[in-house]
């Protein structure tokens, strides 16, 4: 079933950490955290997106701020529906009188049941026709990689909940691997490190700040340091201490090693002809968590291949999804499953 010939056309990256929405002829309209704040007593939704994220770890007992996406897939279908409806209505306030259709980026390892859950949520959120595309494919298209040609291209998309590694050729993913490790796992590893090493309890938002300011996957020419504030588990009082990038690199070792292993496993499964193409072209990294300092260098050292991080890596999935939505006939065979179309 083809898209309707009128209405708003959207490319959506429904991510674990952030949701991005690109619209035809309008560019990036939504870039907000995938967080929903609810009243536990009434189940009333209080805030969505940026406002809800500010409540993480700071809410009174009756209010909870949650992420309805976990490891790149739906954890709470009702909250995902609320979140999608909120973002669609921000993009198109009069959506009741206009037809909205979208291509949505999802992890390559998504199951059929999870695909149906995303499509159901999109339908109830007011999207007339929804299609799904694997995130590595969407990211490649969003980076203007010639995915329909017969040459091989290797993409690593590291998001909040998953790392997607794929070798793409002739409009398909010849080999791909989806690992449930990404920016959120980086943050959890920092929280655990601070707890075990210093008896200091910090929140996810503080861990994310530490990751951005001093986190690294490879030794730095000049190591960094910063002050961290948290709750002393032993003394039961607030406390601050100085930490270094060397320590945080150690904290991040396990999730970084898991990503490296996934990359090497994918390369092992790559056909020889496409391996030759990758040797010439190198590996392209995208996704917000690909910005971790030194991660590209670490992968370069482990694979002996050229590695580069694309410009504006956070938006590439949403950009690619929009490109597919605008050129459905050209890219129809790169989509996952069937569309969800409501008359």
Task: Compute the number of strand runs.
Answer: 19
Individual helix count: 12
What shape does the CA trace take?
Answer: flat
Helix % is 25-40%
**Biggest sheet strand line-up:** 3-2-1-9-10-19
Contiguous low-pLDDT stretches (5 residues minimum) are: 1-5
Strand content: 25-35%
Category by helix and strand content = alpha+beta
The overall pLDDT, averaged over residues, is: 91
- N-to-C span: 11 Å
Q: Report on the biggest sheet.
A: 6 strands, mixed
Write down the Rg. 21 Å
In short:
α4 (135-142) packs across α11. Helices cover 36% and strands 30% of the residues. It has helices at 50-53, 77-91, 112-124, 135-142, 183-198, 204-214, 245-251, 253-269, 272-281, 295-303, 316-326, 328-331; strands at 8-14, 18-23, 27-33, 36-39, 44-48, 63-66, 69-70, 73-74, 100-106, 127-134, 153-158, 163-169, 172-179, 200-201, 225-232, 238-244, 283-286, 307-309, 335-341.
Task: Write up this protein.
The chain is built from twelve helices and 19 strands. It is of the alpha+beta class and 343 residues long. A six-stranded mixed β-sheet has the order 3-2-1-9-10-19. A five-stranded mixed β-sheet has the order 13-12-11-17-18, sandwiched between helices. Strand 4 and strand 5 (44-48) form a beta hairpin. The longest helix has 17 residues, at 253-269. Residues 1-5 have low confidence and may be disordered.
